[in-house]
Amino acid sequence: MREIQLREAKASPSAVVDEAMEGKPSVITRHGKRQAVVLSYEEWERLSHVPTFGRLLMAAPLTADDLPERNPVPVRAAKF
Predict the structure, then answer these.
(1) What single-letter DSSP state applies at residue 64?
(2) Structural domain total, the chain
(3) Is residue 80 in a domain?
(4) What is the Cα–Cα distance from 30 to 4, expressed in whole angstroms?
(5) In this structure, is residue 76 part of a structural domain?
(6) What's the CATH number where 16 sits?
(7) What's this protein's family per the entry (predicted)?
(8) Would 64 be classed as within a structural domain?
(9) Digit-coded pLDDT (tens) for 10-49
(10) Residue 4 confidence (pLDDT)
(11) Is the pLDDT higher at 56 or at 24?
């Protein structure tokens, strides 16, 4: 991923967008600090739809036999 100064990005925004669409995102810097990223809409959409860990677990094809039996003794009552 290349870094370009905001001044350079403002001078040729079409080139920055064209590169992003070709799969080459750019980091825009201002005063040497990273401020923004330009990437293709397809890449943004792919990254924005990453499922949460909870949703991944809920979507897992598990059956009752896949899970260990539950200990009927509450953890607080168990003697260690």
Answers:
(1) G
(2) 1
(3) no
(4) 9
(5) no
(6) 3.40.1620.10
(7) Belongs to the phD/YefM antitoxin family.
(8) no
(9) 999 999 999 999 999 999 999 999 999 999 999 999 988 8
(10) 96
(11) 24
Is residue 29 in some structural domain? yes
Residues near 12 by beta carbon (within 8 Å), at least 6 away in sequence:
none
pTM equals: 0.61
Order of strands across the sheet with 33-38?
Answer: 2-5, 26-30, 33-38
Distance CA 34, CA 24 (A): 17
Beta strands in 1-80, from DSSP E residues, in sequence order: 2-5, 26-30, 33-38
Cα angle 20, 25, 28; round to 5: 110
Domain of 22 in residue numbering reads as: 2-57
Mention every residue, 6+ apart, whose C-beta is less than 8 A from residue 4.
16, 26, 27, 28, 29
